[in-house]
Amino acid sequence: MNPPPEPIGGARLLFSLDAAVAYLNHGSFGAVPVPVQRAQQRLRDEIETNPQRFYTTGLWDRIAHARTHLCQFLGADPASAAFVANATAGINIVLRSLRLGSGDEIITTNHGYGSVDLAVDHACVRTGATHTIVPLTLTASDDEIVVAVSNAITPGRTKLVIVDHIASMTARVFPVARLAAAARLRNVPLMVDAAHAPGAHAIRVDAINADFWVGNLHKWQYAPRSTAILSVAEQWRDRIEPPIVSWADPDGFPSSLEMGGTLDYTPWLAAPTGLYVLRTLGVDRVRTHNSTLVAYGQRVIGAALGLLSPSELPMPGGVTPSMRVLPLPSHAARTNADAIALRNRIADELRVVVPVSSWHGRGLIRLSAQVYNHPDEYDRLAAGLPRVLQALR
Questions:
Q1: pLDDT value at position 307?
Q2: So what's the pLDDT on residue 236?
Q3: In a 3-state reduction of DSSP, which class is residue 234?
Q4: 228-232 β-sheet, strand order
Q5: Which position among 111, 141, 340, 372 has the lowest Cβ density within 10 Å, counted as fewest Cβ atoms?
Q6: Residues 98, 102, 103, 106: is their CA dihedral positive or negative?
Q7: What average pLDDT does range 212-224 have in this prediction?
Q8: Where does the pLDDT of residue 297 fall: very low under 50, low under 70, confident under 90, or very high at 90 and above?
Q9: pLDDT band for position 139 (50/70/90)?
Q10: Which DSSP state fits 166?
């Protein structure tokens, strides 16, 4: 077994997390570094010294500057990108801009995020379109994914394909550039739900060449929450409808999306500080630490659960990100309610925060690794989880 990585000196002190809790769930909500918290608070203080000056003097230039800085790191064209609150907001904006009708189809996969499926279903009820979900196994290969999604497309009927960059529930890395190319051959737009991608591993949005791409920056790129980037291909920009029609509507994309009156824009303006923290720690160093540590966690917890065969330890495809999943015994977390109850029990009894889900009737536990985590936190979960699961029988 490969050893866990050496801790990055001082990294734990950058975060405000409770030291008594093993927080193994950076993937859900992130954790904002203290320097980013302070940068955002300074911006809030600036607002309150003179709200009129903040909102009417140079605010949109500051937002555009922040967007440009962040897009350079992501490999995205700033003119094709807009700040939005999160990936869910970006997907809803695209769905409402497509002008769907009866007989149209939207395709997703069974690895998709739950709120995305709800948004697609809502759009279908509203417009008469249909929602097709492509089934993929937990360990499907890239080739199998591309073939299954491609075969599901019906040119002329399919109006959008939505795939994950890194699936939230299964931590599966999807071959998004290949999927974008396959959809383009069939003249069908593709949207990438990249909620977990920015900062997790090296990406270039422009190289993916998807019609729509949206990524959260508050997870692996250390931005404040409510910070995401929606990238839209040039041919679609004029069709994007803002959820709020405000003063910048005549200016078009991206300003029409970003301006919503007297909202709190401090997360967007503080987001470059998060990127500064990541670069100061060392982008590659952080990624190597996280991927090595989460692989260690998957191995020790998998061994504690008796999952000794490599085939029983699902490996995300492509570049290994900072999350891994483990299948739970068949009696555990078969329903969403059971999964929530188990998650809460693990938190209460083991002082470990980790997400548990029911993925099509099979319980999964998802591990994250961040620079504030240590091997003994995964060891703690490995030592206590079998006892918690046995108590469920």
A1: 82
A2: 96
A3: helix
A4: 81-84, 228-232, 212-216, 190-193, 158-164, 105-109, 130-134
A5: 141
A6: positive
A7: 98
A8: very high
A9: confident
A10: B
Topology annotation, domain 36-276: Aspartate Aminotransferase; domain 2 (3.40.640)
Token look-up 């997703």 returns: 108
Backbone angles phi, psi at 359, to 5 degrees: -100, 100
Report the distance separating Cα 256 and Cα 232, nearest Å.
13
Residue 383 has pLDDT above 60, yes or no: yes
Task: Spell out the alpha helix ranges (H) of the chain.
Answer: 26-29, 34-49, 51-56, 59-74, 87-97, 114-127, 142-152, 176-185, 205-208, 255-258, 266-281, 283-304, 336-350, 375-390
Q: Map tokens 């620079």 to a residue.
A: 371
Q: State how far the Cα of 266 lies from the Cα of 264, in Å rounded to an integer.
A: 6
Please name the residue that has the structure tokens 């003063």: 247
Residues of the chain with CATH 3.40.640.10: 36-276
Q: How distant, in Å, are the alpha carbons of 82, 87, 307, 370, 386 from that of 303?
A: 44, 35, 5, 22, 10
**Per-residue tokens: 248:** 């910048």
Residues 6+ apart with CB under 8 A from 247: 259, 261
Residue 282, C-beta contacts closer than 8 angstroms, at least 6 positions apart: none
Which string of b and e fits 69-108 if b means at least 16 CB within 10 Å?
ebbebbebbbebbbbbbbbbbbbbbbbbbbebeeebbbbb
Q: Which residues pair with 191 in a beta bridge?
A: 162, 212
Q: Tell me, what amino acid is at 334?
A: R
Q: How far is CA 155 from CA 74, 128, 362, in A?
A: 31, 18, 34
Answer whether 8's CB lies under 8 Å from 286's CB.
Answer: yes
Contact residues for 302 (Cβ-Cβ < 8 A; gap 6+)? 308, 312, 313, 326
Q: Which residue has the tokens 């396959």?
A: 182
Q: pTM of this prediction?
A: 0.95
What amino acid occupies position 293? L
11-31+283-390: in CATH 3.90.1150.10? yes
Write b or e for each residue in 333-361: b if 16 or more Cβ atoms lie within 10 A of its Cβ, otherwise e: beeeebbeebbeebbeebbbbbbbbbbee
